[in-house]
Amino acid sequence: MNRVEVRNLQVSYGNKTVLAVEHASFERGRFYGIVGPSGAGKSTLLRVINLLEKPASGSLQLFGDETDLTSLSYSKGLPLQRKMGFVAQKPSMFHASVYENVSLGLRYRKREKAEIQMLVQEALDLVELSHLADQRANTLSGGEAQRIALARALVIKPKLLLLDEPTASLDPYNISIFERVIQTFHRQTNTTVLMITHNLPQARRLAQTCLFVNKGRIVEWADTDAFFNRPACIELQDFVSGRMIC
Ligand SMILES: Nc1ncnc2c1ncn2[C@@H]1O[C@H](COP(=O)(O)OP(=O)(O)OP(=O)(O)O)[C@@H](O)[C@H]1O
């Protein structure tokens, strides 16, 4: 019950299997970094966990009962999806104010107006953008929009936070704010975080455990220090040393 687990996960396009994970288990409250070459299957793994994509086979346990992902209906998936926050590489904003964008998940959950106001204010303070509450979201800079996307994911207090290269297109200033916010949030809550990143120093800074995904498989999994300083498999040695370039 105290973990997120996937079993017998397989995703294929045509006759190409892009993800095959026999078993992966993520502890409550732990911060995981997911790294690997381009096209390895990292985003596919997060999309399947976030129920954005149906695998050919596989089950998910999300701090509770195990669910068969192949037969999951919309109504059974909704309560699971509501335990998760997701931030993608590029923020997609609704044509509305920043406040309305951040409050959307809370309104779906039918929270009281006063509670919504309090939680949105808290989330905007966390990303240091409360002064933009009334601004139209489509007028934000890229860095601001990504911090608002983070506020929108955190405001619902997710049990599982999924981050897919969230700082890939940010400048150093916004990267440092983004990292500080997720670190603070992670420290203050018992949230499990899965973060894909191509920025290896970032994985070292933030993650407690790292996973190396290559050719659709999780090929190595270790505490961050051992992962980078004592990688066991040759592919990971090549990857962390920069010898693996694709
Ligand atoms: N809808 C799709 N149809 C066909 N192939 C797909 C589809 N989605 C993903 N793929 C393929 O699946 C493989 C894994 O993609 P995925 O996006 O998970 O990789 P990734 O490790 O996240 O890569 P990157 O680091 O470049 O984002 C890639 O070869 C990709 O081309």
User: How are strands sequenced across the largest beta sheet?
Assistant: 6-7-8-3-9-10
Count of the domains: 1
Main beta sheet: 6 strands, mixed
Give the total of beta strands.
Answer: 10
Count of alpha/pi helices: 9
Helix content: 25-40%
- The SSE order reads EEEHEEHEHHHEHEHEEHH
- CATH H-level homologous superfamily name: P-loop containing nucleotide triphosphate hydrolases
Structural class: alpha/beta
What can you see in these coordinates?
With about 250 residues, this protein is α/β, with parallel strands linked by helices. It has one domain (about 5-240): Rossmann fold (3-Layer(aba) Sandwich), CATH 3.40.50.300. Helix content is about 35%, strand content about 25%. The chain has helices at about 40-50, 75-80, 100-110, 115-125, 140-155, 170-190, 200-205, 225-230, 235-240; strands spanning about 5-15, 15-25, 30-35, 55-60, 65-70, 85, 160-165, 190-195, 210-215, 215-225. Strands 6-7-8-3-9-10 form a 6-stranded mixed β-sheet, sandwiched between helices. It has a 4-stranded antiparallel β-sheet with strand order 2-1-4-5, with helices on one face. Strand 4 (about 55-60) and strand 5 form a beta hairpin. Helix 4 (about 115-125) crosses helix 5 (about 140-155). It starts with a strand and ends in a 6-residue tail after the last helix. Bound molecules: adenosine-5'-triphosphate. One of its GO terms (cellular component) is membrane. Pfam families: ABC_tran.
